[in-house]
Write a structure and sequence with these properties.
- This protein is mainly beta and 443 residues long.
- The chain folds into three domains: 132 residues, Leucine-rich repeat, LRR (right-handed beta-alpha superhelix), CATH 3.80.10; 102 residues; 177 residues, no CATH class.
- It contains six helices and 30 strands.
- Strand 22 and strand 23 form a beta hairpin.
- The protein is globular and about 65 Å long.
């Protein structure tokens, strides 16, 4: 019997069917959404995960969302369509029986690989997408490496030995290792930020060859002892947490140049739309140019809004972005974003409730992501439609979003968001905030 789910993803209506042989088929087009908390806390096949032995994704589906099939421990085979472009973080994590992935696109590349390859021939995957899967170990061995850069570790060995020839440990490359022993190679020169995030290592010896270690290399890790080279200055300070809302952004000579935005549409602040310290952001349409011969220069064509790039530049400039989402006149959540010294985007996700007549936090979480992850949340869309609707991105049917910008970084992560919501509610009295009791019924 086919199970129906509708309105799960942006521009995506999905049907799914799990037959008696354990084959799960996903029908539809567009993006299978992320499954975390809030609107889509778990996938609709959550209670049937242990029955899934094969997965068939139909042609027309372009993305597989975060955690979509995480923990499907009986899943052995996956069939992917030619239309698939992205597989988000954790989508197949802990699918410990997954041995075969069939795809017409025979190239799989990590989203942060500096050699991205041809998009037409490649499926891109995110953080820990294939962690703890036999297929990944067969595909890349113990390590996903490119030209001396270690991006991902697939090895399950307790005594983990990073191979000689590796000169750079990339962000999150040795994350979530658990209680293990790690030996670093003598060829290693660079350790980037958040390399050991979530890892539990008793003792780590840094080789004499290392010349550069990010102050955030050991952020969010549980390493007991780190032995540094004798030649390294002992004045270097290392941050044990990756969340530093008040820290300054250090701009060096190698600062990335801003990407240009098409002239036809651009992301800009609206005039007169102010909520206290918060300024609303919308897509602004460039005015038509009327020529003497009576012609008007305004061609929609295939011009797109580089919304993600523009928003990233705002948070790089020490701004805070806030996004409020609602559906059917009920508030869903508030998201806010800043950039920390690592150039990682720190995202704060808050679910507000009414409690004793006041707006309080029911649930909240912090997470970090790279620039590419943040920017890709704003895929290229029809520029004309975005301009006409005044939206930064198209959402799934019925969901509304408004985006704001604030300069008050010091209150990021709770107080700022509650103050913003207080302003916003005065302008949107028709949008209800559920009570603590009502919210609990949905989860």
């Amino acid at each position: 019997m086919r199970e129906n789910t509708t309105g799960l993803g942006k521009d995506c209506l999905l049907d799914w069917n799990l037959d008696e042989t354990g084959c799960l088929t996903i029908y539809g087009s567009g993006s299978i959404p992320d499954f975390s908390c809030g609107k889509n806390p778990v996938p609709p096949w959550q209670e049937k995960k242990e029955q899934i032995r094969e997965l068939y994704v139909s042609e027309g589906i372009t993305e597989i969302g975060a955690k979509a099939f995480e923990g499907c421990r009986a899943l052995k085979k996956v069939y992917l369509p030619d239309s698939l472009e992205w597989i988000h973080a954790y989508a197949f994590r802990d699918c410990c029986s997954l041995e075969e992935v069939q795809s017409k696109k025979n190239i799989f590349r990590y989203i942060y690989d500096e050699n991205p390859g041809s998009a037409r021939e490649t499926v891109y995957f995110g953080l820990e997408t294939f962690k703890n899967t036999p297929w990944a170990a067969k595909q890349w061995g113990d390590f996903y490496c490119e030209e001396g850069v270690l991006y991902i570790c697939f090895s399950q060995e307790y005594n983990l030995v990073i191979p000689e020839g590796i000169h750079t440990l990339y962000e999150f490359s040795l994350a979530n290792l658990g209680n293990r022993s790690v030996t670093l190679p003598e060829t290693l020169t660079t350790i980037k930020e958040l390399v050991f995030s979530g890892s539990k290592i008793e003792e780590l010896v840094i080789p004499e060859s290392v010349r550069k270690i990010s102050p955030y290399a050991f952020a969010d890790s549980d390493i007991k002892v780190v032995e540094f080279p004798q030649s390294m200055e002992k004045t270097t300070g290392f941050i044990r947490t990756g969340i530093m809302p008040a820290c300054d952004i250090k701009k060096g000579k190698n600062e990335e140049k801003p990407c240009s935005i098409p002239d036809l549409y651009r992301v800009n602040m609206t005039g007169g739309k102010s909520y206290g310290t918060f300024r609303e952001l919308k897509v602004m349409r460039k005015k038509e140019v009327h020529h003497k011969d009576g012609t008007v220069s305004l061609v929609y064509g295939r011009n797109h809004v580089a919304a993600g790039e523009s928003l990233y530049r705002r948070i790089q400039a020490k701004k805070v972005l806030l996004c409020v989402s609602w559906k059917e006149e009920k508030l869903i959540c508030i998201k806010s974003f800043i950039v920390v010294d690592t150039n990682q985007v720190c995202e704060y996700l808050m679910y507000p409730v009414l409690e004793n007549g006041e707006i309080n936090v029911w649930n909240a979480s912090f997470s970090c992501q790279g620039k590419k992850d943040f920017v890709r949340a704003f895929p290229e869309s029809d520029g004309k439609m975005l301009a006409e609707e005044g939206k930064l991105r198209m959402t799934d049917e019925g969901t509304q979003e408004e985006w704001f910008c604030s300069s008050d970084r010091n209150m990021f992560g709770g107080p700022l968001e509650l103050e913003f919501l207080d302003y916003w509610k005065q302008k949107h009295p028709q949008i209800a905030i559920e009570s603590l009791e009502e919210k609990g019924k949905h989860f």
